[in-house]
Amino acid sequence: DAKDETEEYKEVDEREKMPHYEQRKWEEEQMSSATFRFGAKKKEAQEEYDLIIDNQIEFIQALSLPGKKPPKEPELSEKERKKQSIAETKKSLPIYPFKEDLIQAIHDHQVLIIEGETGSGKTTQIPQYLYEAGFTEDDKKIGCTQPRRVAAMSVAARVAEEMSVKLGTEVGYSIRFEDCTSQRTVIKYMTDGTLHREFLSEPDLASYSVMIIDEAHERTLHTDILFGLVKDIVRFRSDLKLLISSATLDAEKFSGFFDDAPIFRIPGRRFPVDIFYTKAPEADYIDACVVSILQIHATQPLGDILVFLTGQEEIETCQEILQDRVRRLGSKIKELVILPVYANLPSDMQAKIFLPTPPNARKVVLATNIAETSLTIDNIIYVIDPGFCKQNSFNSRTGMESLIVVPISKASANQRAGRAGRVAAGKCFRLYTAWAYKHELEDNTVPEIQRINLGNAVLTLKALGINDLIHFDFLDPPPHETLVLALEQLYALGALNHHGELTKLGRRMAEFPLDPMMAKMLLASEKYKCSNEIVSIAGMLSVNSAIYYRPKDKIIHADTARKNFFVPGGDHLTLLNVYNQWEASDFSTQWCYENFIQYRSMKRARDIREQLVGLMQRVEMELVSNPSETVNIRKAITAGYFYHIARLSKGGHYKTVKHNQTVMIHPNSCLFESLPRWVLYHELVFTTKEFMRQVTEIESKWLLEVAPHYYQPRELEDSTNKRMPKAVGKSRAELGEH
Ligand code: CDP
Ligand code: MG
């Protein structure tokens, strides 16, 4: 048996000098046949690949020959050339030959499932085909949802470019806190969450002629809920076309859900991808990534590299180490263009990943999961897959939510590998063992609806008048206890009455595209006369990238600057202080620079704040200010976040009040050293331990004031205080003093 095992492994070609890896023969049966199709196409593919390589060599030679200039095409202006190349690219996409058939199928059926490989042109082309076919006449729009903000923005930008229009005119996008559309917009990309909210103002989607639920295979919470909502709508809006588009795998399931809607398959074009596994598990996958990138760069033919990391921090670390090593190698290696991409990266930086790689250089893209299916970067030949992703997870027993790094599923691993075979034969380096792949990875990723807090979703559904959530038409229903917990939480927040119906407060909360706790905090600020302060805090908390700038070479300065902002009371008030000081500087860039604050994050906080102020006006809330009353500000925060309370226990650890979970104050918190007895936290992050991030000191009696139906006085008695007199009493008794 052991022998068979080893024979399955093919040693890597000596010439390639890749001692880290062993190659495993492609096991087609492990993959869904839909995911990786080559077979008959292989020869054709090889020829095409040879052609690409030949062209590349010729091109490079042309450039490097001294005195010989590359041939010029003087007849075409830059703009015309760009236009021509866009037209060519459009024609080369796998979806192009099916344009007419597809439009016909859409005319023939109200609901259509569209399945095609990532990169085949579904997201960018289908809305344009529909536009050309007249689906936007009669003042109706084509909508297309994306699970991710970055994807919605970058795809809209791309389509605007392809159609030679300015982004935000005919083609636009709408994401939470940012609407880049206008009266003229006919193709609108948006996040699934945004469409979910649009139902509140337009329950029949009357302004759309076609709705595309794109990247359906991602199965985000909002996409899953949209399935139920749109299924209902097509029943009474016979003129609305519904397209469910997905990369692979789930088409049959979607078809089943939508009353056996037909499936339109776009044949894939996929080149073979060789998979390599590490022989032993990697202790430090960031380091393993860096080593692998450099090995590929030094030993493999040109072609870009895509690396999958779990988040911004990891990407930045990897980028730093890599840049440092590249610098030290100097001219010994060819140019390596290092580009990060993650959700919070400013869009001009994101755009860079789509620029062509300079000749004789290699591009390496350090990406989050976003590059798995939502974004297609051309010319990727090598993929490095450490096998992890960041996932929202939720414990329905404790109600605790946290963002944790987890192993990916086999389906994800294969999707990632597939990214290497889009333009030519590729290679995928998995930083885990073949054994781990086979035995440790789950087959499929669990849909989000089954693993996250449903508070926000339930609130929106209730606001849509959907009262019976237990019988809502879910593709995969959430666990019963998660649903019940969400209902309980909304009840405790005062958003639902004891019949489970939306209260007046709940209706106002639903107006805000915020987590119910934050919405409650905002609304409670009215009572505590500090809405102006709370809305700034909400804006700051909603910026999910870093506020403080901490460059490696100026850590001490940066930390001193950060500490200068600390105010008594905790991190929420500190965030408010940062915002207020920035405002006092007239929102200056220079001020940010001098104080080690990220200007972009602040600008976003200000944008969000402004949006929220607009929404506050809509629910007739006044903007009142009381900056000296920090107790009231903290009480308003507590009114929203009374679920997130922990009390000091032994050894600087904290225990959450309701579930007695051990948590700690994050080292970046201004309360890290002072350890107050009672704290409120904004969120938990799990790294080495469960850390509370954005922590504020509170008094336990406030909990009885803001959530009397949730807390009993007994729970809030201070165990240390209680034990002390008893212990003293006892010792006194023992001493016979009574
Ligand atoms: O949706 P699907 O995965 O089927 O493909 P797509 O996103 O429509 O991508 C089609 C083509 O457009 C790919 O070759 C992408 O590289 C290209 N594209 C681009 O160049 N820039 C973007 N921002 C988005 C797509
Ligand atoms: Mg797509």
Automatic annotation (TrEMBL):
Keywords from the UniProt entry: ATP-binding, Helicase, Hydrolase, mRNA processing, mRNA splicing, Nucleotide-binding
Enzyme class (EC, first level): hydrolase
GO cellular component: catalytic step 2 spliceosome
Domain of life, source organism: Eukaryota
Gene Ontology molecular functions: ATP binding; hydrolase activity; RNA binding; RNA helicase activity
Region (Disordered): 1-15, 65-86, 717-738
UniProt GO BP: developmental process involved in reproduction; mRNA processing; RNA splicing
Ranges of Basic and acidic residues composition bias in the record: 70-86
Residue ranges constituting the Helicase ATP-binding domain according to the UniProt record: 103-267
Catalytic activity: ATP + H2O = ADP + phosphate + H(+)
EC number: 3.6.4.13
Record bears the keyword ATP-binding: yes
Hydrolase found in the keyword field: yes
Domain (Helicase C-terminal): residue spans on this chain: 292-465
Protein name (Swiss-Prot/TrEMBL): RNA helicase
Native species: Bemisia tabaci
Lineage: Eukaryota, Metazoa, Ecdysozoa, Arthropoda, Hexapoda
Parent-record interval covered: 136 to 873 of 873
